Amino acid sequence: MTFWAAGQTINYPPDIPGMERLVIKTKEALASNEITDYDIAIKLGADPNVKAEGYRINWNGNQTIISANDFSGARYGLLAFTEEIANGGKPNQINGRQVNPSMEVRAIKFNLPWDAYRESLSMDYHLSTCRDLKFWEAFLDMMMANRFNQLALYNMHPFQYMVKLPNYPEASPFTDQEMADWQAFWKGLFRMAKERGVEVFIVNWNIVVPESFAKHHGVKALNDTSQVVRGYTREAVTAVIDTYNDLSGLGVTLADWMTKMTAAEREDWIAETFVAGMKAANRPVKFLHRAVLSGSSNEMRRILDAADFQDPVQVEVKFNWSHGHSTPKLLITHASESGAVNTGYWNPAPENYKIEWMVRNEDFFILRWGEPDFIRSHIKTNTADFMNGYYIGSEGYIPAFEYFTKPEIGRTWNYAFERQWLFYSLWGRLLYDINTPDTVFEEQFNRKYHMDQGPQMLEAYKLVSRMPLRLASFFGSTWDYTLYAEGFMSPVTPPGYGYDDKVSFFISLEELMDRRVLDPSYLSIKDYVAIQVEKKKVSESKKTPLDLANELTANAAEADVLIKSFTAKGTIYTSEYNQEIDDLRAWSLLSRYFAKKLQAGVYLGLFRKNGDALQKQQAVKALEEALVIWKELSEVTSKNYLEVPYIVGGVFGFQDERKDYFSWKSLIPEVERDIEVAKSASFQK
Prior knowledge:
Protein name: Beta-hexosaminidase bacterial type N-terminal domain-containing protein
Number of strands: 16
Keywords: Hydrolase
Largest sheet: 8 strands, parallel, barrel
Organism: Imperialibacter roseus
Strand content: 5-15%
Radius of gyration: 26 Å
CATH superfamily of the largest domain: Glycosidases
CATH class of the largest domain: Alpha Beta
């Protein structure tokens, strides 16, 4: 197909889905930069050096040639060309650009709000948004623009929303018309994803059946291994594959409810239901097998060897459990009872599957975040022959309906993921090309806000976005609710991680002092105090709590200089720009708060060991300064954000209904409590 005007030609194969929309954006970028003479040709199968989803851009004579071997590569090539034009480049300057993907799998984990694994007040917000194909069109456009190529949709039991089975009509709670509406939704979603080069996987938890099915057959809705449950699950798997031609794969979880089963029994159940159902379908699809706490690498290998799937199986492993935004070092996984790294999943090297690291984010949902150097380090540190990609995403947070921002301050976006645009851009673009330079993201700031301070803006984000990474590295945590970094909260203490006499969701001074670290290159407060009391030498390879406090303070100070330079210009920017600045301020204040609390913990720990009253005074002073910082944090965040339901809710025995809601301001009494704890502390002989 050809777009042609006098001196303006864009020629591309007509069968590439979605290319017309991209060509329109290319023309707009060319026109905006007053480029009126151009000849662009997109060619498939034209370059043997270009790999799957890769591209090459050459200037040949007076023509731009974008070469690729598949649809995704062609789209990505045109996106890259358009971006360079939008940044002020000329067609003849864009020559010799070649990119082959750094990671084959670049996936987003997305939990659906219906039949949700994590039930909370916040889930209901998303019910209508996640049924709206306009939302998915926007989300999938974002994924394509950022070079993500897989979308994994998770919920407890998706099949009842997707098919009605002739042999098990009681499993469906929907009328024929309601099921037709659901199927139109799924088919529309899968079709749009395919048009953008995004493979969609449906992922469930096990063992789960619909309530109507359980009642009809007199079985349990969870963890029932009877033959009728096996037969239903197997038939549902086959029917879903046969009904949805654009569905790319199915995923399975050895879930919380596969209790009282051995590892072999769990895998046998998967083989008899999921694997058998997939084999019975009229076409092959890809298979995702999650590696979780109840799994066994040996037993998983056994069933995958027997299954002999056409495509390599994807095996997803949680990197540092639920808090992958911590250290790039792989220190714990969710694939062993102890949390220790279970290397059996990749040693010996697998022959019929590849590992994907799941970098979960349960640590920041509200504040914007972006640290490209962390992502680069993560990818470089953890690339290996046995792995081929990454998943990013959350368990309880759904980036759909935007319910955080106060409506009266103005909003230039429709959906939650759009507020976190930098997060998705950094992860997607760097997974696609680890060599993507900072200038790409700096120019995104410049284009978005019609500014010239993109480099300074990205640098400020780098500095302050290290705070949640450092907290998660210092404050050892495991599953979802053991840490929520942007709120400085730890709703649950994992066994064996230190102080567990909890009085609130907040990370109290006592808990910070007693918690063991995740990254062994850090010294915990308790261990550092012991070394000081015993007058031992600190290893040069260790970072002390005071070292970390100094680093956090320096990062905040450097970021604050940059932040002041933005606001001092006096230019009126959009409401979204102002909120970006406020989020930078919030992270800077959180960095300072964390630093003060580390200092207070060390001083108080030393006082309790040696009775030095001056150190007690230093602890109190640091905490009083921390209170001032937290109150300023509360003011900054209250400007833009509502008090919102927190994903934990009141499910852990806290009877106060306010615990179901989160705001930084509501935590001021907890910050004040630390001061009283320090003031009342006594020398412990």
